[in-house]
Amino acid sequence: MSASPDDVADAVARLDALTRRLRRECPWDRDQDERSIVPHTLEEAYELAAAAHAGDDAKLLDELGDVLFQVHFLSLLLEERGAGTMADVAEHIRAKLIRRHPHVFGEVQADSAGEVLRNWDAIKREEPGREPGIFGEVPENLPSALYARKVQRRAASSGFDFNHVPYDAIRDELDELEAAGERGERFHEVGDVLFAAVNVARKLRVDPELALRAASERFRGRVQAAANLAARDGADWNDLGPDAQLGYYARARLAEGDPPQ
């Protein structure tokens, strides 16, 4: 199944018309600006990421629509103050993608994803108006795991990187954490452990934010399943001792086919 360019253009035009009507006629939409909308944009982006990670195509289609509406709404806010239009947004990203894909639209050779990323980063550094320096324009308000990955990737683009997956760095940082004494030192070493884990994820091309979220969801589900097992035995989870809770937790993991650890 594929849509024709005319079908896409018609659907986008209808969404654009709807967005404009909401801006005119809906009291809530009229009250918004980019600062009040962006938290919703971030929320929709996370829901989109969850749908993609789950492999749920129906949910992915739904969440893509929510994100697309956010783009339209924010573009309309730009238009209202004469700073740009949806057409400008689309043309800007089209030109940027052409400029950053010289291996497709130019004469540059890139035979691997790694080469593409290195070219991409080099081109970004040369674009006019960009903040200078290795870490120029790295948003400090990113979630911590994504901020760490972004900083690591920028360092790597300058040539400062491992040629291997640095599993040993996690082991070394864990040893330092175990030896840490006072609270401030432990705080420092915990950060180093997490930073090293993000670096391993980056080298493995695993999104650390999604991986941690997935692990949290697994843990949440297992603890809830363990509490349910306890309830079926007539026990209250909160009244159980640690050993009994761990026993139910192990049973919950076995029930889902995961060997206890």
Describe this structure in words.
The protein has helices at residues 5-25, 27-31, 34-54, 57-80, 86-99, 102-105, 113-126, 144-157, 167-179, 183-203, 208-232, 242-255. The two termini are 45 Å apart. Helix content is 73%, strand content 0%. With 261 residues, it is mainly α.
Q: Outline of this structure?
A:
By secondary structure, the protein is mainly α.
Q: Summarize model confidence as the mean pLDDT.
A: 92
Q: CA-to-CA gap between the ends?
A: 45 Å
Shape descriptor reads globular
Number of helices: 12
Notable traits:
mainly alpha; single chain; 12 helices; 73% helix; globular; 261 residues
SSE layout:
Blueprint: H1 5-25, H2 27-31, H3 34-54, H4 57-80, H5 86-99, H6 102-105, H7 113-126, H8 144-157, H9 167-179, H10 183-203, H11 208-232, H12 242-255
